Amino acid sequence: MHTLVNKLVGFPMKPRVIIVGTGHHLQAGSKKHSIEKREKFRAYIDELCKSHRIKLVVEEMSEDVLPDYGVVDTIPKEVAKSRRDVKHEYINATEAELSGLSIDRRSLGNTKDSVNLTDAQFAVLVRLVGELRECLWLTRVLALNIWPTLLVCGASHVSRIEHLFNSVGKLAFVACHDYEP
To answer: 0.85 exceeded by the pTM?
Structure first.
């Protein structure tokens, strides 16, 4: 009813999925970025949670890759934990899940070599695997069914994930295509 009223009186509908694209090292809070940059990103995520009344933060990340960035939790997860009314989930496939589907980096490299893919053909395969992962994120967020949601992902995924959410009727809004403090 609320969205119908908003349409009738000309107010914009409130988005259900707010999307932030960024680099994974910044997202993770790795020491590759200065403390100042990490704190600016933390403040940005916190402000988005406040201003959009976020109930769920989800990320293109999985716990098994956190050691690669030298962290235990990502910045968005730390923000969610600091806000008692905000839940958090990593929505990317784990390394085991990717391997089980033969779409982890090693398997893809082996596929390229074994079927003699050109660099251009391999680039298409990698893009398609990225789209498969994006569909997984969509279904995982839909299954959680907690709105509004803040989704943090790599900048290269922003436009497609926005399109996917909008395609299934979950109004998506891009807060930033490629956040860099």
So the answer is: yes
pLDDT tens-digit series, residues 11-63: 555 669 999 999 999 999 999 999 999 999 999 999 999 999 999 999 999 99
The label of the residue with tokens 């279904």 reads 139
Sign (positive/negative) of CA torsion 95, 151, 66, 155? Answer: positive
Q: DSSP string of 17-74?
A: EEEEEE-HHHHHT-TTS-HHHHHHHHHHHHHHHHHTT-SEEEES--GGGGGGGT-SS-
* CB 25, CB 33: distance < 8 Å: yes
Which among 7, 4, 20 is positioned nearest to 152, based on CA atoms? 20
Q: In what order do the strands lie in the sheet with 56-59?
A: 87-90, 56-59, 149-154, 17-22, 172-179
Q: What's the token pair of residue 120?
A: 């251009």
